[in-house]
Design brief:
2 domains, two-stranded antiparallel sheet, 10 helices, disordered C terminus
Length: about 270
Amino acid sequence: MKNNNNLSFWNIDKIKVYLERLEELSPAELHALKNDKRKGVQKLLSRYLRRREEALAAKKHLHTMMMMEEAVQKKGYRWIAGVDEAGRGPLAGPVVAAAVILQPGEESLWEEINDSKQLSPAKREKLYRVITSRAAAFAVGVVNAALIDQINIYRASLEAMSLAVRQLWPQPDYVLSDAFTLPGLDIPQAAVKHGDALCLSIAAASIVAKVTRDRIMESYDRDYPGYGFARHKGYPTPEHKAAINELGFSPIHRRTFKYDGQGEEINS
C-alpha cells in the first residue's frame, strides 16, 4: 500500500473526516488504525466502531420489525396498514388512533421507528414528520370524551381505530392492529399482541397517534388553564387529581371515571 493511501500516515483531522464519511473500513484500514499509537486516532476508531455497531443494531431491529409485514406481503397483499391508539388511560381528552401504510421500498427511512412509549418526545416529533411526509398513506381517528362516556373506553378505542382505517387512501388490503380485532371492517386483518413493539407499521401508527393526541391536549391546556394538560396530557398524575379537586371537571373530562374525596380514581 502506498504511503499516501495508508491511514497510518494521515493526520488526525484527515482521519476524522474520512471516518465520518465512511460506512465500512477495509480490513487493511482497520488493521492500520488499530495499530496506530496515537491516542486521538484510537478515540476516533472507538467512536467509528461504536457508530457502526449502532447502525448494525438498527438494521437488525428494522429487519425484525418488518417480519410481520413481509409475511403478509408473501401472501399477495400490498397495502398493509398498521393501526394503534393513544389515550385509553387518561381521565380527560379524546382517544386518538392512527392508521399508517408505509411506502414500500423505502425501508431506510424507518430504521428509527419503535414503540412510541420507548421514544423521547423529540424523537417522536422527528419520526412523526418523516412518517406523515413519506408514508404511502396515513389517517387518524378521534373519539372525544363525551362519546367515550356514552360507549365506554374499550368500544371508543375500537371506533377510533376503525375510523382511522376507513379514512385511509388508498384503502388497505390487509390490517395489522395492536391487540384488538377491529369490528365493521371488510378487510382481512390480524390483531398483534404488543404489536407496537413487534410490527413496524403498528409502531409507526403508535407514533402518529401519540403525537397527534399530545398536540390536542396541549391545545386544550390553553382552552382550560389550571389543569396542566400540556404536561400530563390528561393522565391521572397527582397534579391532575389535585387540579380536579380544586377546579372540578372541565368539559373534556371523562365523567364515567369515579373519584373518592381525594381525587383518586376508584373505578371506570
